[in-house]
Inverse folding.
């Protein structure tokens, strides 16, 4: 992942340890607020990013807490872009469909949340690069908090 | 994550405190395994002090729901804040779980 960040970007690097997820949630909450989202949308975005990180730890790194996760948050003109980069096992997007809610069972809700909440969810897997990049975007709908980024 | 356990007659009350995410859910799962070992028929889980719940936290509660269902027990949830309630709604679990505003309402529902 590129190290340079722009004026409207924040980059967080964490180890793949779920004890850091609360820290990630706090950061996402603050940036989503800066982007002008309403409080219920902020809570949803926090959930989507939390689920994405938890999936990386569980599936890409198989629970190994010593690996790296990069989280880049970009303030867009009317929303937010979240890019998560890992260097673990490449999981083909077709296998990351999540599940439908037609049965009550634990597990498999993470991808469902991400797709339900964010406007776009894209997995980028390159043959010439390690790991997976996950790009999620959400736009501010009418009725956002009207907060503005400087 | 913190857990508190109380009894009110034949109703078991569990008060959870903290975030229910993939970091804390294993601890919650262990806690509930201990509670369900006694095969209590009536369980109220108060989420008033749970500020956040992820799919891992939901999975823990779904497991409790299913285990209790298997031995003929009933689980009732109460005290959810707007954020937690919203997550249940996205997952469409608000129509599966018995959810009450307050602990008193959840407890009273067992006698109605």
């Amino acid at each position: 992942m590129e190290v340079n960040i722009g004026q409207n970007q924040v980059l967080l690097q964490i180890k793949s340890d779920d004890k850091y997820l609360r820290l990630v949630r706090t950061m996402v909450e603050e940036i989503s607020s800066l982007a002008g989202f309403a409080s219920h949308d902020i809570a949803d975005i926090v959930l989507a990013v939390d689920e994405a990180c938890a999936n990386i730890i569980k599936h890409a790194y198989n629970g190994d807490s010593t690996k790296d996760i990069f989280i880049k948050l970009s303030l867009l003109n009317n929303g937010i872009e979240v890019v998560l980069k890992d260097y673990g096992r490449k999981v083909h997007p077709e296998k990351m469909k999540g599940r439908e809610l037609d049965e009550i069972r634990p597990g498999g809700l993470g991808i469902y949340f991400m797709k339900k909440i964010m406007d776009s969810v894209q997995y980028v897997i390159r043959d010439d690069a390690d790991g997976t990049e996950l790009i999620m975007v959400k736009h501010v709908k009418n009725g956002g908090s009207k907060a503005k980024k400087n | 994550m913190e857990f508190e356990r109380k009894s009110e007659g034949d109703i078991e009350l569990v008060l959870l405190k903290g975030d229910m995410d993939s970091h804390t859910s294993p601890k919650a799962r262990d806690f509930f395994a201990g509670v369900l070992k006694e095969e209590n028929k009536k369980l109220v889980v108060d989420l008033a002090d749970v500020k956040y719940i992820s799919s891992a936290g939901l999975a823990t509660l779904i497991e409790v729901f299913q285990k209790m269902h298997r031995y003929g027990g009933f689980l009732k949830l109460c005290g959810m804040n707007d954020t937690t309630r919203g997550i249940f709604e996205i997952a469409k679990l608000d129509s599966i779980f018995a959810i009450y505003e307050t602990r008193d309402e959840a407890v009273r529902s067992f006698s109605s």
